[in-house]
Q: What sequence folds into this?
């Protein structure tokens, strides 16, 4: 069975350490009882002691129960309103008073007033016996309310009265004065027969607010295993993505290497062996470019100087492995050739100009251009 179907009722009295009686219920039926002392663990192997709900049954004369009408409020708002009402009907200061509020079943809700010191003593008494109570119920609320009138349960020389909006404990001499009609007496068996219904949905539980049961952290091993499995799957997914990326990059690098080798075969001399295409292409480019500034940079400066010098034309030019650009220029007069040489020098190159000679009605000169 589940733990919610089992209950252990401990009847406490102030100043008496062992409970003054106990009942053990299963499926709402009393299966074991004791008149005093600490109850033993359940004998039925289908019932685990840790799954039993422990209910402390406290004296009715220590708890004052009122039925109050509250509008539709949230739980915190309803508690605040109940405390305001409690301050009007109780002489005990609110800081020493525990106010418990029942559920909203109908027009009226049960409100219980009990000393905070008394609540702490009951909990300490149960803990000293090795029990952490799940609920605390006043004795009068163990009875189901009758359809009409009031019922009376004689217990330990006291009359416990229960009506639709009545739940209290009184001396026999006063019990008849607290109700309009004489209460109907009921036996223990009648009360025990209704305990299953009462405990399934109690009218009011004193263990709330400052005295609410603290939730114990328990490891959900099933959830933990699922989280570990999910974490492992996520880790495998991340590793798989990384492996795919590594494979993708490796294939791309191989493809790039093949493309570079293909380009090198077309650019390098056919007689050579291609071992390191990148290094061999760089070496071939340096060889073709020559020393100094290289052909492109040197020719660009020379062409710009020819463009900016009037009456000057290029007749021929060549570039050798030493990085020297040899230019044959023609001009209308030697002064124009000298101006061309100055512009090339202004571009950052060194110029060695040969003597001008006539030819075809123009002046011809050889210029050797190199880096400085």
A:
């Amino acid at each position: 069975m589940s733990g919610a179907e089992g209950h252990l009722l401990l009847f406490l009295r102030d100043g008496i350490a062992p409970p003054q009686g106990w009942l053990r219920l299963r499926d709402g039926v009393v299966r074991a009882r004791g008149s005093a002392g600490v109850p033993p663990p359940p004998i039925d192997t289908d019932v685990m002691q840790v799954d039993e709900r422990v209910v402390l049954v406290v004296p009715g004369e220590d708890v004052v129960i009122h039925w109050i009408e509250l509008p539709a409020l949230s739980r915190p708002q309803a508690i605040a309103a109940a405390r305001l009402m409690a301050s009007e009907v109780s002489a005990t200061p609110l800081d020493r008073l525990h106010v418990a509020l029942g559920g909203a079943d109908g027009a009226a809700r049960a409100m219980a007033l009990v000393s905070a010191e008394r609540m702490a003593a009951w909990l300490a008494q149960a803990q000293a016996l090795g029990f952490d109570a799940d609920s605390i119920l006043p004795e009068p609320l163990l009875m189901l309310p009758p359809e009409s009138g009031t019922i009376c349960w004689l217990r330990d020389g006291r009359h416990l009265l229960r009506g639709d909006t009545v739940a209290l404990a009184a001396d026999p001499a006063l019990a008849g004065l607290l109700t309009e009609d004489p209460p109907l007496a009921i036996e223990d068996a009648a009360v025990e027969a209704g305990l299953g219904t009462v405990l399934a949905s109690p009218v009011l539980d004193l263990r709330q607010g400052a005295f609410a049961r603290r939730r114990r952290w328990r490891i959900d091993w099933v959830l933990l295993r699922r989280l570990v499995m999910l974490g492992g799957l996520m880790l495998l997914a991340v590793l798989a993505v990384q492996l795919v990326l590594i494979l993708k990059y490796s294939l791309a690098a191989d493809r790039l290497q093949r493309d570079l080798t293909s380009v090198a075969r077309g650019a390098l001399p056919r007689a050579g062996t291609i071992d390191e295409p990148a290094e061999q292409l760089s070496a071939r480019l340096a060889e073709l470019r020559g020393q100094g500034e290289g052909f492109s940079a040197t020719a660009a400066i020379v062409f710009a100087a020819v463009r900016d010098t009037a009456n000057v034309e290029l007749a021929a030019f060549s570039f050798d492995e030493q990085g020297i650009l040899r230019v044959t220029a023609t001009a209308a007069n030697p002064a124009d050739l000298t101006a061309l040489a100055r512009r090339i020098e202004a571009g950052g190159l060194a110029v060695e100009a040969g003597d001008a000679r006539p030819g075809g009605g123009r002046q011809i000169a050889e210029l050797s251009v190199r880096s400085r």
Residues 105 and 141 are 15 Å apart (CA to CA). The chain has two domains: 3-211, 290-371. Residues 45-50 have pLDDT under 50 and may be disordered. The domain at 3-211 is CATH 3.30.420.380 (Nucleotidyltransferase; domain 5).
